[in-house]
Structures are given as C-alpha cells and as structure tokens.
C-alpha cells in the first residue's frame, strides 16, 4: 500500500500543473524504462498542446485520424508504419538502433511490406513471377568489415511487381511473389533473378495519403529493392538499394534514400549470361554488402547513445542498452 | 512549380538532420496553421525518439498499441478519447479551449460516452430507467456571471446506470437511458429525475486498460453526472458534478475533478417532495451553473493564449483564435 501514500491528490488540475501530476501518477510502477518513456511522452504531448493551443476541433480531428488509421490496418496493411515513415520517425528509429561504422553498408527503413512467408529459394532462383517485369539478375556478396565473406546469412529480399505493387497489395494474392529468402554461400555470395524495380506510390487511399495531399507532398518512393540480413551473432540489418536517376531519387516520400545505397544497373555480358543462365543484355544489379556483428552494433549504439544523451544535457545510464534516468 | 524548386533534396538523412528536412518537406502547402501543427508534431515526435533512444521493439510495440486502439473503436467506443483522457491531454485541451473567469462554473472533460441521440424531455422528467438506481432529484439553474437567468439553454445530461455502465456499454442497448436533453425555463431553471451516480471503471478490456495496469494505475472514475450547455452566442460548455467522499474523488483516472465541482447530495424535504412529485427523503442534487458568452470565452482564450505563448518565448499571432508563427 506504499503506492497509495505516494499517489498525489489529483484535483484542480490546470494547464500549468497537469503535466507533473500526470507524470507522478504514471510513476508508480517498477519498470524504470516504461516510466521514462511515459514521462517523455506526456511531456511532449502536453507541450505540443500548449505550444499550439490545440483547439478542441483539431484534437478531435487528430483522434479520428488515428481511429481511421487503426481501422484500415489489416494483416497486409500497416497504416501506422506508413505514418511513421512519412513523418521521418522510421528513418530516425533505424538510425538510432542500427548505426553503422563508415566501412559498413548503410541501413534503410523496413517499410510496411515485409512479410514472414517468403519462400527460401536456392541461389540463382527466379523470385519474380510478373511476366511484365523487365528481368534483372542480381549478383551480390555479404562480407564483414575486414573483407571476409560471411556464409550462412539469411537474406530476405522483396520488391514490387512491374505495376509498383507488392504481392500483398493484390486482393487475389496467391503464392508470395517478388520476394524470397536466400542463404549466402561459403564465399558470401548470393544471387537471384528478379525484375528491375520501379518507383511507386505508397498506399494513399487512407488517412496517411490524405495527410500527404493536405501537406502538398507527393506519395512516391523511388525504385528500390529491400534486403534484410539475419544471422545469429550479426546485426539484424535492413537496407535497400535505389536506382540512380529515378524521378523520386531525391524526394522519397519516406526519407529512405542514402547516396551510398543508390546504384547504377548494368547489363549482363556474354560471359555472365552463360554463367548465370540469363539472356545477354539482361539488367544486372551488383552489390557487395558489408555487415557488422551484433556486438559491434550494440557497442556503437551504446557509444552514440551515451554521447547524444550527454549532448542533450540528460543524466542517464544505459540498462540493456536503453537509457533510464541515472538517479544515483 | 515554385513548389518543386523549394523542395529540399531528401538524401542521406540522419539522426541530426531528419527533423528540419521533414519540417521543410511538410512546409509546402498554404495552410499556415497546419504547417505550424506539423512543425511542432514532428519536432516533439523526433525529440521523443532522440531523448529515449527509442528501440525498434518499443517503436513496433507503440505502433501495434495504436493499431489495436483504432481497431477496438466502434460507434459506441472511442479508445483514443480514453487514451487522451488518461494521459491528461483531454483535461489540457478543455482548459486551453474553455478557460473560465473566476465567477463562472469550471469545466470538466467530455469523456467518450456522450451520444447524439439523447431524447429532449420536459423539465421534471425521469431520465433514468434503471430500477436498481437510487432515485435522485436534480434541481439546477443556469445563469450568467451577473446572476441573470439564461433561458432556452439546451442542457445535455448523461450518467451511468447503477452498475456503472453507460447505456451504450450494454450490447443490448435499446432506447437511450440515463441521458436526456432539457431546456432551461425563463428563470434559467431545469430539473430532472435521475439516479445517484456511482463510481465506475473506464472501459479497461482494451489497450488503454492494459496500459493502466502496466503503469500501476487504477481505472476508476469517481461518481459524477455530465452536463453540456448549448445556446447560440454562449460558450459551448462541458462540465460534470462529482460526489464528495467518493473513494476516487482525489484519484480520478482521467483527471476531471475540480474542487468547485465536488458537491454534497442532500435529501428532499417534505415541501420539495410535494412540489416536485418525488418521495420525501429522495437524494437531492442542487446546483447553480454560471455560464459565459462565446464572446467572453474567446476573448479570455485569446488573452490567455497570447500571454502563454509569450511566456514560452514563441513569436506568434492569432488567426481565427489559433496561433501561427508571426513572421513579420
């Protein structure tokens, strides 16, 4: 019952005292991290309302926006990831959680279209079934920062079809298509037959699309292929490769493009065509990915977190790599 | 096409430059208020992520929380209002939008259980159908700050039944019950037969209820009756009256209680019993409400907004009573 004696009297709350009182009533549990998250959430939420003098109508509009966003979500649609994407939050979360040393491949955001049912295919397999797509051979490697190949990495790869839709966006989706999981070989190599990616609009028939219109923003992403790398002991690494010259290369609606991830496609030459069993002149994507270990990733994340929090003037300690107030 | 030339290059976005770039891309429209709201929203959202170094797992947990909140919403349930209520935001929004001079009745939050189908009843009518409720006669007046009665005010009144549920919380809800609309008479009077309100838990079988458990908070509201006053030219006024001595009087889960809104019930005496046609000894609620005009309300809101924004060091002007940056 110690809890009750700590509970503040919640009476006569005003614009000026509601924030500390909400934080105090939220502060009765044992989970230090959750308490810190709620402290910051409530502070920012209330400061937002105070700085904007948010009107009752605007507040209700926002609540109904969130309601509609929730209600359009389904097994194959995640409107809140889209919202996070277009507000730059997803880029920020990825940057905070998966910092990279200068010699590793940079990350990019997950987006809402990864699924967990991609088939594991042998290297060299065709992962795209769209007959309208322009065939593209991808020849890649995955190595560590010393240049050593990393074998046995599961690489989850997904892209749209030639109409700019992921398979899950088709109501009559059958088998997964334009997605697969490969495993890197002893030389760290993986390769597959896909299609040349195309630029496409993010789903814009819901509340997020309407918000983009209100903001005078377009809803397009430049052409890209997603890659996710998984191997025990290694950083869970999500990135994408973007095609140079795409009309949306410098205005990605979800802020995912990094210069180091922009690539030029080549054409398959005669020798490669024979080796990989594709027609000469097929589009060719080549990329050498450099991944880091989980230990390297966490150490770098901790180092950058500690520095950033100190720079923000926050007295924090890291517990399980996540900051909580340092009250000692 | 001036728009396009202003568009920043969105490339190589990082923890440090994502915020100004997101704000710039959101800043292409014409609506100054919307641009300011988005500027503040993005700034606070990103600062929240930077101060907490929000993990990918926490981010995904939050997105799924919002998804579930949206999906539990229905015609008769609004989980986002509940969320706003338990985070103190609703209290804040009401305080900002409906400030009261010292001689007017204070406001309280709307809550998620107002409906638009309450029947308009004559004064003196019975608005509660629950036979288990303890009968309560309410005799009220509505006046201006000079003490003059205000006639013709529509007063929307709603309370729970004796089990602590609003009618809409019963899946077999038929006619509206424990709710009505009255109209004040020439003397500013309105009166009705309801039931003694009881304390009750807010709906806690959804994500908001689970959050309260995680935070070590209870989900109860002290016994109260809601009142909403509407008349053209007068402030749209929402309040509630709370019973003194309720176990949750000082720990309302949604921060609604103000000392000036806490009342003692009396018992109906012989004379009143005859006058109002109720048994002697029936519970009696008496309250004189004081409302202000829309003009008074907006003037006070503007005055307080201007002062608060200045105190926050923000250079703003009010357009339609809402702040936008003053760039002149």
Automatic annotation (TrEMBL), chains A, B:
Organism classification: Eukaryota, Fungi, Dikarya, Ascomycota, Pezizomycotina
ATP-binding recorded as keyword: no
One annotated GO molecular function: ferric iron binding
Residue ranges occupied by any Catechol dioxygenase N-terminal domain in the UniProt entry: 31-104
Cofactor(s), by name: Fe(3+)
Domain of life: Eukaryota
InterPro entries associated with the record: 1_2-HQD/HQD (IPR039390), Catechol_dOase_N (IPR007535), Intradiol_dOase_C (IPR000627), Intradiol_dOase_core (IPR015889), Intradiol_RC_Dioxygenase (IPR050770)
Record key words, sorted: Dioxygenase, Iron, Metal-binding, Oxidoreductase
One record GO biological process: catechol-containing compound metabolic process
Organism of derivation: Diaporthe liquidambaris
Residue ranges occupied by any Intradiol ring-cleavage dioxygenases domain in the UniProt entry: 111-272
Record bears the keyword Oxidoreductase: yes
Protein name as catalogued: Hydroxyquinol 1,2-dioxygenase
Signal peptide: none
Record-stated family: Belongs to the intradiol ring-cleavage dioxygenase family.
């Amino acid at each position: 019952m110690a809890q009750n004696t700590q509970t503040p009297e919640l009476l006569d709350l005003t614009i000026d005292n509601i924030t500390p009182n909400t934080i105090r009533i939220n502060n009765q549990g044992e989970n230090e991290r959750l308490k810190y998250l709620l402290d910051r959430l409530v502070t920012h939420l209330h400061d937002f309302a105070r700085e904007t003098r948010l009107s009752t109508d605007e507040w209700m509009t926002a609540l109904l926006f969130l309601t509609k966003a929730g209600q359009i979500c389904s097994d194959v649609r995640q409107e809140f990831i889209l919202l996070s994407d277009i507000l730059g939050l997803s880029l920020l979360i990825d940057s905070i959680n998966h910092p990279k040393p200068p010699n590793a491949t940079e990350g990019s955001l997950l987006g809402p279209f990864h699924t967990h049912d991609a088939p594991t295919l042998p290297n060299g397999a065709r992962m795209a079934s769209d007959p309208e797509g322009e065939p593209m051979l991808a020849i890649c490697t995955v190595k560590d920062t010393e240049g050593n190949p990393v074998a046995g990495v599961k690489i989850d790869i997904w892209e749209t079809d030639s109409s700019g839709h992921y398979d899950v966006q088709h109501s009559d989706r059958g088998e997964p298509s334009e997605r697969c999981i490969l495993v890197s070989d002893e030389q760290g190599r993986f390769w597959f037959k896909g299609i040349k990616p195309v630029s496409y609009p993010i789903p814009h028939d819901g509340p997020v699309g309407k918000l983009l219109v209100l903001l005078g923003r377009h809803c397009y992403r430049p052409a890209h292929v997603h890659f996710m790398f998984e191997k025990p002991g290694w950083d869970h690494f999500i990135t994408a490769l973007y095609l140079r010259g795409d009309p949306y290369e410098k205005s990605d609606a979800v802020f995912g493009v990094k210069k180091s991830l922009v690539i030029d496609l080549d054409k398959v030459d005669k020798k490669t065509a024979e080796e990989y069993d594709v027609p000469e002149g097929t589009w060719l994507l080549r990329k050498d990915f450099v991944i880091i270990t989980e230990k390297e990733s966490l150490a770098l994340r901790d180092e950058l977190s500690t520095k950033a929090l100190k720079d923000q003037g926050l007295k924090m300690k890291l517990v399980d790599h996540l900051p909580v107030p340092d009250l000692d």
